[in-house]
Amino acid sequence: MILRGDFLEIQWITVNPGKVYVGSDNRSIIFGGIGPRHEVKIDYEFEISFLPVFREDASEMLSSSDYHIASESEWELAFQQDLISGNNELEELSDRIRGSYWSKYCDGRSFIEDDWIMKTARTWNSGNVSASPINKDNNSEYIRLVKRPSNDMFTTESPQLPESSNKSRLILEESTISLIFGIIPSFLWAHFNASEGYILEGWLNLVFGGIFIGISTVIFWRPKTKSWRIGNNCGRMK
Question: From CA 76, how far away is CA 128, in angstroms rounded?
């Protein structure tokens, strides 16, 4: 359906209910993204604008309860179904992130994290799309609009990610990485290359140097993190 106004023409596309994964399972600095990777189940049919919409043109529509800026999950489901497109825009979505998706309800609603600092967004470039978070104090000229069947369909009974990551497991993983890729190689180097007695006198420097090297590897590599899915029987995140 195409809605025409004085300045606005929107092609609305129907998105069928479905499941989609959102987020990254890579927590390295260069190649990683916001995590954890998690499954979202959208049980409702909704309509989404085929193209991003100029924010100023959509301002009057957004004052109505019938229109909303798309959540990241709704956008991902529509993109997975090959229903939306763009023309080199940076389009803002409605989720607000501080640094992770922990505590998010995985039912299609927008995720607004406490003390958020980033707005989720997508950049279109010659048909390719990339996640491009926007600083809290900035706005994109473009947004993606949706029309949902109801404004009261989200409940606290929906599947939800845990409040935080497993800190003990993270510390163990980082310690193991520092040991294998930093500390042990440092001592091996000293054993074969350093002067006699260096290990005995400089072992503390070798340990701290190894820890630094191990931690530095987070710039380009970390093991994949757990991907959370919705249990078929229990309906909870697993």
Answer: 14
